[in-house]
């Protein structure tokens, strides 16, 4: 009995030690070293830039949800950064996957008694298939060589879509994520991508939420557990460097 209790105490002590080490603040020097190492593995041939819901409802004045995200978008200059990311990533030969959300008229894909974010989408009839609000925003329209994931009518980009098929078909190992909302669809897609075994990179300057605080909180407290948080300039520099080495 004493021996058993001793082993339990040892196990608890070890658990506490591991948790403390995992949750301990990372020093700037260590963060920089970890980021540099992670970016070195970004090969354009194995990387997909996944763009979540760059549609008029969010991106464009007059969109039903634009006012809700406008401040956060402006704080990081996210639309301009995302547009540049899109073009630069295309130039490196990366896979580009657009991940829009859309609903049939009536939004029957959403439960009759929704709550939370989907309640607002249904009540406002946002992202209705075939309407202007569900169209891609002008700076983020797909090019002929881009791919478009089909079937997204929920929060996670993998659920009910062909995203995983497109990624595996292209032999993708790395996912670079930007879009809306930081702490909703981007986060849900990030977590599932992580669990599916992809190396996920999240772009702080290419995401937006319904408040600046929510956006910052997600990156400060959550994203480092399931992705490599970084910025679009860092990712593009790494992709270009890899391309030049292979040339």
From TrEMBL:
Q: Where does the secretion signal sit in this chain?
A: 1-21
Q: Name one GO molecular function term.
A: hydrolase activity
SUPFAM superfamilies in UniProt: Isochorismatase-like hydrolases
Highest taxon in the source lineage: Eukaryota
Keywords in alphabetical order: Hydrolase, Signal
User: Which ranges carry the Isochorismatase-like domain?
Assistant: 47-233
Stored InterPro entries: Isochorismatase-like_dom (IPR000868), Isochorismatase-like_hydrls (IPR050272), Isochorismatase-like_sf (IPR036380)
The record's family statement is: Belongs to the isochorismatase family.
Its name, as the record gives it, is: Amidohydrolase RutB
Q: Which organism is it from?
A: Seminavis robusta
């Amino acid at each position: 009995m004493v021996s058993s209790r001793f082993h339990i105490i040892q196990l608890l002590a070890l658990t506490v030690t591991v948790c403390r080490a995992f949750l301990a603040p990372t020093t700037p020097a260590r963060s920089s070293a970890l980021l540099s190492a992670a970016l070195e593995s970004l090969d354009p041939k194995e990387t997909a830039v996944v763009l979540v819901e760059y549609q008029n409802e969010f991106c464009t004045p007059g969109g039903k949800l634009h006012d809700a995200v406008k401040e956060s978008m402006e704080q990081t200059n996210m639309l301009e950064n995302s547009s540049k990311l899109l073009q630069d990533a295309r130039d490196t030969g990366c896979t580009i996957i657009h991940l829009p959300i859309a609903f049939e008229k009536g939004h029957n894909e959403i439960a009759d008694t929704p709550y939370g974010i989907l309640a607002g989408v249904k009540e406002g009839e946002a992202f209705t298939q075939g309407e202007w609000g569900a169209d891609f925003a002008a700076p983020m329209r797909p090019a002929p060589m881009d791919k478009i994931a089909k079937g997204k009518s929920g929060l996670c980009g993998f659920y009910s879509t062909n995203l995983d098929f497109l990624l595996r078909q292209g032999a993708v190992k790395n996912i670079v994520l930007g879009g809306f909302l930081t702490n909703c669809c981007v986060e849900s897609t990030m977590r599932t991508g992580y669990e599916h075994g992809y190396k996920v990179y999240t772009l702080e300057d290419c995401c937006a939420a319904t408040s600046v605080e929510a956006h910052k909180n997600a990156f400060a407290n959550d994203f480092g557990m399931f992705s490599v948080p970084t910025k679009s300039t860092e990712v593009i520099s790494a992709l270009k460097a890899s391309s030049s080495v292979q040339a």
